[in-house]
Automatic annotation (TrEMBL):
Its EC number is 1.17.7.4. Binds 1 [4Fe-4S] cluster per subunit. It comes from Microbacterium lacticum. This is 4-hydroxy-3-methylbut-2-enyl diphosphate reductase. It holds the Pfam family LYTB. Belongs to the IspH family. Residues 322-334 have a biased composition (Gly residues). Pathway: Isoprenoid biosynthesis; dimethylallyl diphosphate biosynthesis; dimethylallyl diphosphate from (2E)-4-hydroxy-3-methylbutenyl diphosphate: step 1/1; Isoprenoid biosynthesis; isopentenyl diphosphate biosynthesis via DXP pathway; isopentenyl diphosphate from 1-deoxy-D-xylulose 5-phosphate: step 6/6. GO terms for molecular function: 4 iron, 4 sulfur cluster binding; 4-hydroxy-3-methylbut-2-enyl diphosphate reductase activity; metal ion binding. The active site is at E130. GO terms for biological process: dimethylallyl diphosphate biosynthetic process; isopentenyl diphosphate biosynthetic process, methylerythritol 4-phosphate pathway; terpenoid biosynthetic process. Catalyzes the conversion of 1-hydroxy-2-methyl-2-(E)-butenyl 4-diphosphate (HMBPP) into a mixture of isopentenyl diphosphate (IPP) and dimethylallyl diphosphate (DMAPP). Acts in the terminal step of the DOXP/MEP pathway for isoprenoid precursor biosynthesis.
C-alpha cells in the first residue's frame, strides 16, 4: 500500500546559460539569414531541441565539408578545435560560434598551459565533442583521462610539469576522485586556475543529491548523449535514490517504475526545455502524484551575450543579451 504520493522537483534544473545562448543563436541566424542554416553537430545534446530547430530550417551536419561553400554554419555549444575553424574558413563559410563561454575558458587554459610547456591531463570522455575541441587546442600536450581507473595507468613524460583540466559536464565527485588518484602518482600536479566543471552542472548535481536522499525513484529528463543528464542519474543513485532513470520523453516512463513508490524526484539536464519536464509532471499527477514540492539549492541568473556575429541586428542596433532571465526556459521546445 503506497502512502502519501508526492514529487520532489529539483531546482535548478533544465536550461543553462550556454544552452539558452546556443539555441537562440540558431533561431536568430535563421531569422537573419533565412533557412537553411547549417549547424555542426547537435547544437546541444537534446533530441527535442534538435528536432524543433530542424523544423525551423536548421540542417545538422557532422563536418564542415558537408556545408555548401559560402553558407552559414553554427558551431555548437560544445566547441570546436582550431582545425575545424580553419576548415570552415578554407571553405569560405560564414561561421557563427555558439561555443559556451565556459567551454571557451577551458580552451584558453589549454592553450596557456601548452604554451608554458605543461603536459595536460584532460579529464573527460574520449570522443565527446567538447573533449575533442579542447584537446584540439593543444594536441601535442593533451592526454585524455577517461575515469579514476585511467588515472592509475596514464603515463606522463615529466611528472614535475603536469596540470589537470576537465570537461565541463562531469560528476564533481568522480572528477575529484580522479584528481586524488592522479595526485597520488604525481604530487606536483597543478590545478586549473578555476573550476572547469561549470556552475550549471554543479548546481544540478547539488540539487539532485538533496532530492535523492528522500526519493524512491528519480526521473531525469535528458538525452542519452547528454553528459550532464547521464551524470544526474548516477549521482541520484549514489546519494540514496532507490531507482533512477533517464527519459527523453514522458512516454518512456514505465508504469512498473511507480510500483510501491511514494516519493518521485524529478530533474532535467542542462539542455532540456522545461516543457518536457512539465509533461512528466502532468503524467505523474495523473498517477496520483499531485503534491509537488520544489527543492531549491541555488538561484541562477547568469546570461551570456549572443555570439558576436549575431549581436548587430539588421537595422544596425546592437542585440547584446542572449535573452532575459530564463533559468529553464522552453523556447526551442515551446
Ligand atoms: S552545461 Fe555548462 S558548459 Fe555546457 S553549455 Fe551549459 S553552462 Fe556551458
Amino acid at each position: 500500500m503506497v502512502g502519501h504520493k508526492r514529487v520532489l522537483l529539483a531546482s535548478p534544473r533544465g536550461y543553462c546559460a550556454g544552452v539558452d545562448r546556443a539555441v537562440i543563436a540558431v533561431e536568430k541566424a535563421l531569422e537573419r539569414f533565412g533557412a537553411p542554416v547549417y549547424v555542426r553537430k547537435q547544437i546541444v545534446h537534446n533530441i527535442h531541441v534538435v528536432t524543433e530547430l530542424e523544423a525551423q530550417g536548421a540542417i545538422f551536419i557532422d563536418e564542415v565539408d558537408e556545408v555548401p561553400e559560402g553558407a552559414h554554419v553554427v558551431f555548437s555549444a560544445h566547441g570546436v578545435s582550431p582545425a575545424v575553424v580553419s576548415a570552415a574558413e578554407n571553405r569560405g563559410l560564414q561561421a557563427i560560434d555558439a561555443t559556451c563561454p565556459l567551454v571557451t575558458k577551458v580552451h584558453r587554459e589549454a592553450v596557456r598551459f601548452a604554451r608554458d610547456d605543461y603536459e595536460i591531463l584532460l579529464i573527460g570522455h574520449d570522443g565527446h565533442e567538447e573533449v575533442e575541441g579542447t584537446a584540439g587546442e593543444a594536441p601535442d600536450h593533451v592526454t585524455v583521462v577517461n575515469s579514476p581507473e585511467d588515472a592509475d595507468t596514464v603515463v606522463v613524460k615529466d611528472p614535475s610539469k603536469v596540470v589537470w583540466l576537465s570537461q565541463t559536464t562531469l560528476s564533481v565527485d568522480e572528477t575529484m576522485e580522479t584528481v586524488r588518484r592522479l595526485r597520488e602518482r604525481f604530487p606536483e600536479l597543478n590545478d586549473p586556475p578555476s573550476d572547469d566543471i561549470c556552475y550549471a552542472t554543479q548546481n544540478r548535481q547539488v540539487a539532485i543529491k538533496k532530492v535523492a536522499q528522500d526519493a524512491d525513484l528519480v526521473i531525469v529528463v535528458g538525452s542519452a548523449n547528454s553528459s550532464n543528464s547521464v551524470r544526474l542519474v548516477e549521482v541520484a543513485l549514489e546519494y540514496g535514490a532507490k531507482a533512477a532513470y533517464r527519459v527523453d520523453y514522458v512516454h518512456e516512463i514505465e508504469q512498473s517504475w511507480l510500483d510501491g513508490v511514494e516519493t518521485v524526484g524529478v530533474t532535467s539536464g542542462a539542455s532540456v526545455p522545461e516543457v518536457l519536464v512539465q509533461e512528466v509532471l502532468d503524467e505523474l499527477s495523473g498517477a496520483g502524484y499531485r503534491d509537488v514540492e520544489q527543492v531549491r539549492t541555488a538561484e541562477e541568473d547568469l546570461m551570456f551575450s549572443l555570439p558576436k556575429e549575431l549581436r548587430q541586428d539588421a537595422s544596425g542596433r546592437r542585440d547584446g543579451r542572449a535573452l532575459g532571465g530564463r533559468q529553464s526556459g522552453g523556447r526551442a521546445g515551446a
